[in-house]
Write a structure and sequence with these properties.
single chain, 336 residues, alpha/beta, 4-stranded mixed sheet, 11 helices, globular
Length: 336
């Protein structure tokens, strides 16, 4: 038997950070910065568009992947699988992962490359799939999984909600196929979905149902759209049982868990969830203070910082939990 283990991580966020005061000037909006910082924990973020940078999703993913490969000491040409988790792809088609493969391997290879699009749960589901492919395919040795977000590319002028929350960024992990007797490795994952809740928040224009037209643009019905207010207690109700059921699936309990990382959209919610789980805040990592909300990129970005800052060490049992619009939810359990 074989399994996949994480051997390298990397992050990328474009340009100089933008704090809440500067954001209001650059985006021409107003919001309660003090309340924003106290409740959500968002103090700063990186947004290429507001810094006049031409970088977009594929650039973020490529740079995070390069950083993770350097951290792992792996030559990009030795990677057999590239998976990008995102709901803000570079193009409708081709997949962003294909572009990343081309940039890193500079031509045609035997590597596989595809995207996972499951809103903000995209990275956790991509990680689960890549780990399972590595475990079952003897011909593969390394995989790169990136979670990346460029929702600011879809935010309309004057949207105070969108500009104050969403930001650019990417995180990546390099996986290696190892024998089952290795102490580190992927254990299991879970998913939950409710597609009847598709019409809350999303980018609805640009697909086959709602192609972009002059009339649509003039009506302002494009880009990021909040169609209904999201339930404020959704993640408080959702995350604790998901963590417990993921652990139960592996025959583990909360007492066995060393670290857990959640979608980085609201620090107060994470604090409440950790209290429900009976875990101290020292056993989670929050990065929304420096990156804002980076959707599909936030969980791997937090994972990178947790590893590099010593909160996650080799041998630790780690759970990742991500949820997003649609809605889609994914979790991962692994021994780092």
């Amino acid at each position: 038997m074989a399994k996949a283990r994480i051997i390298g991580t990397g992050v990328y966020a474009p340009g100089e950070p933008i704090d809440n005061r500067e954001l209001m000037k650059l985006a021409g909006i107003e919001f309660d910065a003090a309340k924003h910082e106290e409740k959500l924990g968002i103090r700063s973020r990186h947004i290429a568009r507001l810094r006049g940078m031409s970088e977009t999703t594929a650039d973020f993913a490529e740079k995070a992947a390069r950083a993770a490969l350097a951290d792992a000491g792996v030559d990009p040409k030795d990677v057999g699988l590239f998976v990008v988790g995102t709901d803000t792809p570079e193009y409708v088609s081709p997949a962003t992962a294909i572009l990343v493969q081309g940039r890193l391997q500079c031509g045609e290879t035997d590597a596989g490359a595809y995207d996972v699009g499951a809103s903000c749960a995209s990275f956790t589901i991509a990680l689960d799939q890549a780990a399972r492919v590595l475990a079952t395919e003897p011909g593969l040795r390394y995989a790169v999984v990136a979670g990346v977000y460029d929702m600011p590319a879809h935010i309309r002028p004057g949207d105070a909600f969108g500009w104050s929350i969403f930001a650019d960024g990417a995180g990546a992990a390099v996986l290696e196929r190892v024998s089952d007797d290795d102490l580190s490795g992927y254990v299991t994952g879970r998913q939950r979905t409710d597609g009847t809740q598709w019409n809350f928040i999303g980018v609805y224009a640009g697909g086959t149902r709602k192609p972009v037209t002059r009339e649509l643009l003039e009506a302002g019905q494009y880009g990021l759209e909040l169609l209904q207010k999201l339930p404020g207690d959704r993640n408080v109700k959702l995350w604790p049982p998901l963590v417990r059921s993921t652990l139960e699936k592996a025959g583990k309990t909360i007492e066995d868990l060393d670290h857990v990382i959640f979608t980085q959209i609201n620090r107060s919610v994470i604090e409440e969830v950790m209290g429900i789980l009976g875990l101290p805040m020292e056993r989670t990592t929050c990065v929304m203070d420096r990156y804002g909300y980076t959707g599909s990129g936030c969980v791997p970005m937090a994972l990178h910082h947790a590893v590099k800052e010593g909160r996650i060490r080799r041998g630790d049992l780690v759970c990742l939990v991500a949820s997003g619009a649609g809605f889609a939810v994914g979790s991962n359990l692994f021994v780092y």
